[in-house]
Specification:
Blueprint: E1 2-7, H1 12-22, E2 27-33, H2 45-48, E3 58-59, H3 62-66, E4 71-74, H4 81-91, E5 94-97, H5 104-113, E6 118-121, H6 127-142, E7 148-155, H7 165-178, E8 185-187, E9 201-207, E10 213-220, E11 225-232, H8 236-249, E12 255-257, H9 259-262
Parallel strand pairs: 1-2, 1-4, 2-3, 4-5, 5-6, 6-12, 7-9, 8-9
Antiparallel strand pairs: 7-10, 10-11
Helix pairs in contact: 1-8, 4-5, 6-7
């Protein structure tokens, strides 16, 4: 049995991860972590996620939440990440990090922590999106710069960061495939832009409604267009991937891993 703690336990993703874990005999939920001032602090986690009483109190104390845990799944805001990582290293708890918009300095902290504990860090935990990453690398390598390349992502109106972490990962993959750098990226267009420069990659973020997450890569050629598309209809896709990552880490002692490795794609 894997003892699981959740950071961002009462957020949209946290609740779904915990609900799925509560129905999986592999897991025992032992900790729920939330930000200071949250209305759920001190309450039993079970009823907060639609389950029976668990005897697990929601806390703001990361070390307390992790003291009995084997794995922490973290979908909290990136500002909470340093404290959560510090507690995970202290308690030697493995981490699944699904937090997005992580600054470069915090990425370095993740790398340092992974020398002591096992970590899976990915901007998107779904099986389908990780297949999209692999297909993007293949298509970016095969379809040369005679194909104009655009990335578009669509998310719900409440999403705070743009472009999405998934879109930025796709951009990273495609820049590498084409041998290009961030100088070749276009974020939006307006006015007299002129003809489209060869080799540029456009990245566009749309926001509205309750869209969970759509990502489209378009290769525009002369006489044909190739598109790779992933559309998420439920956050369960991300939650299921996070729990697969938790199971993967249960067998590891230290190191930094990504979802391609969890899913056997790398």
């Amino acid at each position: 049995m894997i003892r699981l703690a959740m950071a961002g336990a009462l957020g949209r993703m946290g609740k779904i991860v915990l609900q799925l874990a509560s129905r999986d005999k592999t897991f025992k939920i032992v900790g729920g972590l939330e930000q200071r001032g949250h209305a759920g602090l001190g309450q039993d986690l079970g009823p907060m996620i639609g389950c029976d009483l668990m005897g697990v109190k929601v806390t703001q104390d990361a070390t307390a939440a992790l003291k009995n845990a084997d794995v922490l799944v973290d979908f909290s805001h990136f500002s909470a990440l340093p404290e959560n990582l510090k507690a995970a290293v202290k308690t030697h708890t493995a981490c699944v990090i699904g937090t997005t918009a992580i600054p470069a300095a915090m990425v370095r902290q993740i790398r340092e922590a992974s020398k002591k504990i096992p970590i899976v860090q990915s901007p998107n935990m779904s099986v389908g999106v990780n297949l999209l990453f692999k297909l993007a690398a293949l298509a970016g390598d095969i379809l040369d710069e005679s194909y104009d390349l655009e990335i578009q992502e669509v998310h719900h109106r409440m999403k705070k960061d743009a472009p999405s972490g998934t879109a930025l990962k796709l951009l990273e993959i495609l820049l590498k495939a084409r041998g290009r750098t961030m100088k070749d990226v276009i974020y939006g267009r307006e006015g007299e832009t002129g003809a489209r420069p060869r080799g540029k990659i456009g990245v566009f973020a749309l926001r509205g409604g309750d869209v969970i997450g759509d990502h489209t890569i378009s290769f525009f050629g002369d006489g044909e267009k190739v598109e790779l598309v992933h559309k998420a209809s439920s956050r369960e896709a991300f939650a299921r991937g996070a729990l697969l990552a938790a199971k993967f880490l249960a067998k590891k002692k230290q190191g930094l891993y990504h979802m391609q490795q969890v899913l056997g794609m790398a």
